[in-house]
Design a protein that fits this description.
- The chain has about 110 residues and is mostly helical.
- Helix content is about 90%, strand content about 0%.
- The protein has one domain.
């Protein structure tokens, strides 16, 4: 659960530094790469909240183990489902990111 919480925090850092690097990457990418960059940015901005929700659910599950043991099982199950969704979201986001510079993947 702590690992999932850390991933949620790191997601915030990835979004922040991704915004900082957007202009530099856009300058070295070709036109096709810039279209993929726009898709990557759109996907990341749309789906970043699922990572935060997953981290919050994991934090809630840790809290529930101590304070509300009857809730813990439900929150752990919710965290598992959200984690699986987060992995899928990360794959979808990174697919567009991999297309930006690497023309051999296109």
């Amino acid at each position: 659960m702590i690992w999932i919480i850390l991933v949620a925090i790191i997601t915030g850092l990835a979004v922040y530094f991704g915004e900082q690097a957007l202009e530099n990457v856009g300058a070295i990418a070709d036109a096709h790469g810039n279209r993929w960059l726009a898709r990557h940015k759109e996907r990341a901005e749309t789906l970043m909240y699922i990572f935060y929700l997953t981290g919050s659910s994991a934090l809630g599950a840790l809290w529930a183990q101590r304070r509300r043991p009857s809730w813990a099982r439900h929150l752990v199950s919710l965290t598992l489902v959200l984690t699986i969704l987060s992995i899928g979201a990360a794959a979808w986001i990174s697919h567009a990111g991999g297309q930006v510079i690497h023309a051999e993947f296109r």
